[in-house]
Amino acid sequence: MIRPIFTELALFLAPFVVYAIYLVATKAALLELSSWPPKVLASLAIVALVLMIGSFIVLAHFSGAPVDATYEPAHVDERGNFIPGHVR
Q1: pTM for this prediction
Q2: What angle do CA 1, 59, 4 make, to 5 degrees?
């Protein structure tokens, strides 16, 4: 569960990090408030939200089991071995 959270967090922060790298490359003042105007912050936040929503759609569409798969719950076999749940 922690990996999807870190993935979404990384996707959200990516535009801000790229802009910070741009500021460093252009030798602008990275920590100056004038380098981070509200219009730029708003556009970076919109791009970040689009990236996150896109990743939600991709994960929902391409992850998981096939449609015709059957889930077999965890059980104990004849010899007493624990068999974890899995999709067939």
Answers
A1: 0.70
A2: 25
